[in-house]
Amino acid sequence: MNYSFPRRSFVAFGTVGLALAALAVWLLIAATTPAFAATPVEVCNLQPDYAAPGGGGVYSAYYGPPSHSPVSPGSTAVYDGRQAGIIKAGQGTDPGPSGWDEGLFGFKPTATINTFAALTLTYDVENQAGVNPVWMTIEIDTGVLGLRTDNTAYQFVPTSNPAGWNTFNAGAGLWLQWTTYTSGITVGPPMTLSAVAAANTGLQVVRTYLRLGMGTSYYNGGTGTTAWVDKTTLGGVTYDFVTVCTPPPPAVGGTTELLVNTAGGFTASASSSPASSAPYTAIAGGGALAIVLAAVAGWQVQRRLARRRIGAE
């Protein structure tokens, strides 16, 4: 009786073994490779328009007399060793009560106040002129969904503003509620951000602002108040004010990538247009290499054994 192992079974098990070995190597590489942090959103164009090219989805504005219409506050620049965006208030001559001015950066988070409060909420800033710090407000969609006039706003103001660059942790600070979402008049006791979340649980944060102004103190005896914001992290997103935005990466498929056909088999593509369409799934880096090596090794084993079989027959 012949107890020899069938050649076809040897080929099949050999191919599977090689594939599993290659996959194990890939998994080992993946397990020991540190995860990459989310890429910051770059802001290199300061405009009072959330959709401005290069604006990073940030509303950058200065409101001043006499019209108080929003205009660009200026340009990003390198200040004290960092790329940053300018925010200002108290510009020009100290006006009467109707001559207020204000600078702000506006953001549109996509998180509930519960998630928002649980995530990092910081901003890096340095004053160039004036002593008043850049402060923050959040606006929560209370009342009728999507109607801003019945929203609720809260403010955070740093308790100190030392010279040089500061990272203000608004998430760990105290907040005061406004009487209306635009009044700027506070009401009630100071609250932690977690207490704000508990009072508005499940509701959406629809705006976050960094602000300078309003008030005569921002004129600072004629110097005005000017500050520079480097990075702001809120709602799980970091916004980075830079002098020049990084060009977008080339389209997927510009270099050869392995495509695994989910219906069975695989193919390689060197197309300059995105090639990862159904039923194909792109496999990156070591995973693609492991699969290719396993497939080639299995094919080599099959070819050699086929030659031996032909010779024997």
Please identify, by name, the CATH architecture of the largest domain.
Answer: Sandwich
User: Per the principal axes of the C-alpha atoms, what is the gross shape?
Assistant: globular
Structural class: alpha+beta
Named CATH topology of the largest domain: Jelly Rolls
Into which percent range does the helicity of residues fall?
10-25%
The value of Rg in angstroms is 29 Å
Mean pLDDT: 77
What is the CATH domain class of the largest domain?
Answer: Mainly Beta
Largest sheet: 9 strands, antiparallel
Low-confidence stretches: 9-13, 25-37, 254-292, 309-313
Tell me the span between the first and last alpha carbons: 20 Å
Word description of this protein:
There is one protein chain. With about 325 residues, the protein is of the alpha+beta class. It folds into two domains: about 5-35 and about 250-310, no CATH class; about 45-240, Jelly Rolls, CATH 2.60.120. It has four helices and 19 strands. It has helices spanning about 5-30, 115-120, 195-200, 285-310; strands spanning about 40-45, 60-65, 70, 75-80, 80-90, 100-105, 110, 120-130, 135-140, 150-155, 165-170, 175-180, 185-190, 205-210, 225-235, 235-240, 255-260, 265-270, 280-285. The strands form three sheets. Strands 2, 3, 6, 7, 9, 10, 12, 13 and 14 form a nine-stranded antiparallel sheet that branches. Strands 1, 4, 5, 8, 11, 15 and 16 form a seven-stranded mixed sheet that branches. The protein has a three-stranded antiparallel sheet with strand order 18-17-19. Strand 2 (about 60-65) and strand 3 form a beta hairpin. Helix 1 runs antiparallel to helix 4 (about 285-310). The longest helix is centred in the C-terminal third of the chain and has 28 residues, at about 285-310. The protein is globular, with a radius of gyration of 29 Å.
